[in-house]
């Protein structure tokens, strides 16, 4: 989703001052991706805390995630110049960069302390990644309970407690069938983690913990209704989390 669409989707939350700041950012994208929050606050004549609150209104965790999104959006503008193999190399490099920037301790600690850990993948590729996640952690005597479909999630949602942990893997992060369940989890204080591509999405905006990977859509044909999703970088994130847990919590 482009920054303009994100702004429009969250227009009701934004003040006139917010729109002025966003106007500056839109007009100076090339330079904003290379500066820190202090310099941006000076150039846009506002405070650092105002910028952080603005990015959170747009669904980002803070300025760092927002800036990374801007860099990624800029790269998408030049994708036609790249071939598919170089796109894979770029996605892997960006995913590894995201992993090194992520503090995995809170999530891994939550796994180690939870009474029960559940995992749910929204589609075929996500379920396969969830199976790998479950298998990997079994080697550490951490037994994760896979949820086969949203039907079984609905069956059990009211039994989850604040001492459990739920992990959602979703390519879009915009799964309407999950929204009521996410609301229930938040109302009952049940912690949950999202694993999604790096982009603004409902699931990660609500999650207690969040992991991101980089994915670039491949143009295999000219049919706009066909979406080709591949999961190499998702599997890298899953494996990296497991290795971090192995190094620090086992």
Automatic annotation (TrEMBL):
InterPro entries found in the cross-reference section: Homeodomain-like_sf, HTH_RpiR, RpiR-like, RpiR-like_SIS, SIS_dom, SIS_dom_sf, WH-like_DNA-bd_sf
Ranges of residues in domain HTH rpiR-type: 1-77
Keyword Cell inner membrane recorded: no
Protein name, as recorded: MurR/RpiR family transcriptional regulator
Keyword terms: DNA-binding, Transcription, Transcription regulation
The keyword Transcription regulation is assigned to this record: yes
């Amino acid at each position: 989703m482009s920054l303009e669409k994100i702004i429009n989707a969250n227009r009701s939350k934004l003040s006139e001052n917010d729109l002025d700041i966003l106007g500056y950012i839109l007009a100076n994208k090339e330079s904003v991706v290379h500066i820190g929050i202090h310099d941006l606050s000076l150039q846009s004549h506002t405070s650092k805390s105002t910028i952080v609150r603005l990015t959170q209104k747009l669904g980002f965790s803070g300025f760092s995630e927002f800036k990374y999104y801007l860099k990624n959006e800029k790269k998408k503008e030049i994708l036609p110049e790249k071939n598919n193999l170089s796109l894979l190399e770029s996605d892997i490099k960006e995913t590894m960069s995201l992993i090194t920037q992520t503090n995995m301790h809170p999530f891994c600690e939550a796994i180690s302390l939870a009474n029960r850990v559940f995992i749910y993948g929204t589609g075929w590729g996500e379920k396969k990644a969830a199976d790998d996640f479950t298998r990997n952690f079994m080697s550490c005597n951490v037994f994760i309970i896979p949820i086969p479909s949203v039907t079984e999630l609905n069956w059990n949602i009211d039994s989850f407690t604040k001492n459990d942990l739920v992990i959602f893997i979703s390519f879009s992060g915009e799964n309407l069938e999950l929204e009521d369940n996410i609301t229930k989890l938040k109302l009952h204080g049940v912690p949950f983690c999202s694993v999604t591509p790096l982009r603004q999405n409902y699931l990660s905006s609500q999650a207690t913990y969040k992991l991101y990977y980089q994915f670039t859509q491949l143009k295999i044909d000219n049919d706009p209704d066909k979406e080709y999703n591949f999961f190499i970088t998702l599997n890298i994130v899953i494996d990296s989390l497991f290795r971090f847990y192995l190094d620090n919590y086992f």
